[in-house]
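Methods, example record. To illustrate the input and output format used throughout this study, we show the complete record for SET domain-containing protein. The sequence lines were provided to the predictor; the line carrying structure tokens was produced by it.
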Amino acid sequence: MEAHNDVRRARPAIWQANEQLVVEPIRSAWRLASRFSADEVHTVCGVLEVNAFEVGPQGCSVRALYPAAYLMSHDCTPNTSHADDAERRLSVRATLAIPKGQPVTLSYAYTLQGTLRRRQHLREGKFFDCVCRRCSDKTELGTFCSALICPKCGEARVLPTDPLDEASAWECVACAQYSANAASVDLLLRRLGDQAEAIDANDVHEFEAFITKHEKLLPPCHYLMLGAKHSLCQLYGKAAEYLISDLSDDMLRRKRDLCQQLLPLIDLLEPGLSRLRGTILYELHAPIMVLATRAFETRSINKKDLQQQMRRVAQCLEQAAQILALDPEDSPERQMADAAAQALVQVNEWRRQIGNNQKC
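The corresponding predicted structure is encoded as:
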């Protein structure tokens, strides 16, 4: 339960905020100065900042310490997933087979962020510099999710020369004819990140506009694009005026393609039975199913093609249910798992009926 007081004391904004909002009220307003020194209260602040988990539903979250979970180390491609239930009990499960003697890891950062932003977050909030396999690889495990499009050759290969040095220049590894200094790249990413953050969480049009506006600078695999695509995967089919039954075929294909673009990257960044993979698989089943049934109704495909598409739907639902059923019973993910399991029963019945009709 490290508090990193020396590091935190050297950052006036953090130390002074805790002094004003925590230390002084506890020691003065609560009249506990005789029981706890200022350094003791600052130490507890540090322990919380470094080791606590944010638990509880949105709008009602708290920071909580767990006597075993805090021992897990960080990795930007973690091998576990964790969730809390209604009573704030934390469950941790492996998402991959973990060999004996290997660390059990979780991620303190958002996995769909690029290396520069993840490392800044970890330094500012957890007070260490991450040097994991992903952070040390300028391609981020081959995903290129921080790469920029080169204005010289048009390839998405503008990368930091040293991903562990924030001051290192960015260069195009494809043509070697373009470079940018670290400060200008950082400023650009902050500006674009602010634009993405400013989009209303339910605004399909604005997310699509963001992708279109920046597609000549950011490749489809860039983390800012992935964030927008992840939002769109969920909004198509659920947002007002975009319910699944109301979507045009083009919108359904858009939802399907977005999900399919995300899955191979998720398999590298959050490998195994991750919650993110489970939710995307669940989102993917709907456009495949609706497009197939519409195409069959208009006789654009035959029963064999329909059966093939229903098999894909069943695979998505089966995998989604398997992954999301591992979450706590009262969680949204567990509800999604139950919905996936129920839909799978219905889809398999449809497949049986289609098969019987084919034989007739």
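Annotations derived from this record:
Residues 332-359 form the longest helix (28 residues).
The radius of gyration is 24 Å.
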